[in-house]
Amino acid sequence: MIFRLLGPLALTGAGGAPIATVGGPKVRALLARLLLDAGRTVPVERLVDGLYGEEPPAGAQGALQAQVSRLRRVLPPGVAVEFSPAGYRLAVGDPAADVDALRFEALAGEGARARAAGDPVRAAGLLREALGLWRGPALCDVRDAPFAAGQAARLEGLRLDAVEEWAAAELAVDGELPAPLIRELESSSREHPLRERLRGLHMRALGAAGRQAEALAVYEEVRAALAEELGADPSPELSAVHLGLLRGGASAPVGQERPVGQGRPVPLPAPLTDFVGRERERDRLASLVAAARLVTLVGPGGAGKTRLALEVGAGLPGEVRFVDLGAVAGPGAGARPGEVTEAFAVTVGVRGGGAARLETALAGRPVLLIVDNCEHVVDETAVLVRRLLAACPDLRVLTTSREALGITGESLLPLGALTPEAAEELFARRAAAVRPGFTGHARVPELCAALDGLPLAVELAAARLRTLSVDDLADGLGERLERFELLSRGDRTAPERHRTLRAVVEWSWSLLEPGERELAARFSVFRGGATAEAVSRVCGAGAGPLASLVEKSLVEARDGRYRMLETIRAYAAGQLPDEDPAAAAHHTYYRELAEAADPELRGSAQLEWLARLDAEDANLRAALRRGAPEDGLRLVAALTPYWWLRGLRGRVAAPVAELLDRVVPTAELGEEYALCVLAAGLREGGHIERAREFLASRTAPLRQPYTAFLWSTAVGPVEGLRMGDDPWSRSLALVGGAVLMTATADGEDVRAAAEALLTEALAGFRALGDRWGTATALEGLAALSAEPLPLLAEALALFASLGVAEDVVDLLHRRAAVHEAAGDPTAAAADRARATDTARRAGLATR
């Protein structure tokens, strides 16, 4: 069964016999739209826009469902419309074989590749087969559907490309030209008189057929049309064909005499360095440019958008032109009316005439325009690009910008940081260029991470190796001002806004509205990103301004969080006034979050809250350095269970020690002070003695259930401490009682009593859903049980689910001892090997 879109919509059987057409106009339009993406899911929103336009009526989604139901009733056996949350999918046997439009694209692409590879015979056969699938204008009987005009224009453009490729292949094969070729070239040339490659191929075919005079007449016709319509002369390639005919030869047709992507009349800017680290994005962009008429590479300054666009453009067949809007003045910078249009006209080779002449010049030309640096003239560029795309069905546009054009049908490819591996490779290659013999350094990964993997920043840093060491660079990047001073020497020939790291960020900053700058400066108080709620509370901004920063590539949005690249954050922090309330609001927000999380870490929601605090770890550590010292003590007390469960005490010791230096301890916050001393890693000295006195003199129950356990574990027990009366504290007290009982006495009665305490504690922790407490009670019971392995296995799984590396390591060694005692050295060795690996990955000492 074949679905035919290249002409009136039709279905034919395997032998070519027609099958009855399906449904009314809407059903046929829906079928045609699904067939264009047969085998792939089409989002509901895209189908609604395709059938009902950019402003669909109320209830359009319900109407779409009704049309889908009608379509399902009339589809032949073996074809189905499937629904998923992502949209609708038309399931056919083999889309590339069963849909003529898709088969045409596949054959035409294969034919073009065969010709480029030097196999014109195979190319001609494939392209002839592809063009034989056409029975008339594509989608001609569903043209009333909003989607159809654009898709039909796209397919027609591909058909013309295929005609040209077919002609080029046939002209490269020895022997007589097929008669249909010249007829096809004549017909297509009448419809597209300014398409120079097509006209050049027509001239070549006429010359090869011995019709020299007709070929020369075609040239005169083209030259007159170009002069009248565009005020332009024929391209050098077309002139070369003309000269070859005058000399009685058969010079190569336009587009055939040069390798793909090279030797264009106005060549693309040639790079001076090799292409590194964007191979996946290059392939993705090439696919987007092939499938969509407007693609925008969007990302922050220095991400390598221009380089990637040029890399893709250089690898594409056909005509590719480069429009650099970097020199065009933006609003408020002395811009003259029509500067954007003039930049386009110069590239295309048009002299004057404004947008109307551009339309005429591009109307019959299968050209890709790479439009670079659009962000400062995004409004004017968007208006012009939309007009040209509407008037020129063969035109495709690839833009680079820090902000999307915002045109319906625009496909976006966000470009962010390089992968760590790619950033390190880029640094190594650029460093070797300025310091011959450079092969790497242990701190290169750290340095590239500090630069956010931003290509320009990495290249600027590598260039400094002329005078600095990698250690100097890595150490200097920690300071905000030092970062911009270190990376202040770039390419003298680059546009001013790309010469230094500061200039790159300042350019983006200058394009913001005053309110956006204020929000961006306040956003700099976050570390590691933030949720929309946090931004609202801390910065006093709603979703609209935040979305604007995302659209302008100052902030990244991913997985429900918003984040600034560290380079942008460092610059924004320098714009934040000292008296701004954002820093204090940041501390308050995260202290309240920690206090809300504290009790949840001892219940069934333990894992969810641990994950939430994991996401905010950098913000929580930053909050320690903000706010009054007393508030800092309260924050430490609330975060103590989190740090303990996640094994993060080593990471927070330094900021907590800084907090201790600012604190004047009082009995009122004596417990919080003691927890701060423990988190700082102190085990002796004046802070320990003062904290012990505060705890010993305390008469009220402890506010933090972990205090007694952590203090007794790290320093030693304190007589008279009163635990709280909550279920978690009672269960922990039972565990402590059992441990004390077995440590001070022995015998069956003691073991039985301890086992009873631990069993009661286990029940309490299980009821709460606390994994750490449950595992701790199981570990104690295992030490008293004749069958410890099942208890140890459950405890180990619980500790592992929490990510408590120290407890996992200890328990593995304990279980290894049990295996040895049971005569199983293989199991013991496996546990010890796992313990060593876990310790190594967690940065713990290995036994």
Structure characterization notes:
This protein has 847 residues and is of the alpha/beta class. 59% of the residues lie in helices and 6% in strands. A hairpin with a 2-residue loop joins β5 and β6. α17 packs parallel to α19, α30 crosses α32 and α39 packs antiparallel against α40. The protein is elongated and about 115 Å long.
Strand composition percent = 5-15%
Strand order of the largest sheet: 8-9-10-7-11
**Radius of gyration over all CA atoms, rounded:** 36 Å
End-to-end CA span:
69 Å
Strand runs, count: 13
- Shape annotation: elongated
Low-confidence stretches: 250-266
Major beta sheet, specifics? 5 strands, parallel
Q: Helix amount, in percent?
A: 55-70%
Structural class, by secondary structure, is alpha/beta
**Total count of helical runs of at least 4 residues:** 40
How would you state the average pLDDT, rounded?
85
Looking at this protein, list some descriptive labels:
40 helices; 59% helix; 847 residues; elongated; alpha/beta; three-stranded antiparallel β-sheet
Question: Topology, pairings included?
Answer:
Blueprint: E1 2-4, E2 10-12, E3 18-19, H1 25-36, E4 41-42, H2 44-52, H3 60-74, E5 80-84, E6 87-91, H4 95-98, H5 100-116, H6 120-131, H7 148-171, H8 179-191, H9 196-208, H10 212-230, H11 236-246, H12 279-291, E7 294-298, H13 305-314, E8 319-324, H14 339-348, H15 354-362, E9 367-372, H16 378-391, E10 396-401, E11 411-414, H17 420-434, H18 444-450, H19 455-463, H20 470-476, H21 480-486, H22 501-510, H23 514-523, H24 532-539, H25 543-551, E12 556-558, E13 561-563, H26 566-574, H27 582-600, H28 606-615, H29 617-624, H30 629-646, H31 649-662, H32 670-679, H33 686-696, H34 707-714, H35 727-744, H36 748-768, H37 771-784, H38 788-802, H39 805-821, H40 825-842
Helix pairs in contact: 1-3, 5-6, 5-7, 6-7, 7-8, 7-9, 8-9, 9-10, 9-11, 10-11, 12-13, 14-15, 15-16, 17-18, 17-19, 23-25, 23-26, 24-27, 27-29, 27-30, 30-31, 30-32, 31-32, 32-33, 32-34, 35-36, 35-37, 36-37, 37-38, 38-39, 39-40
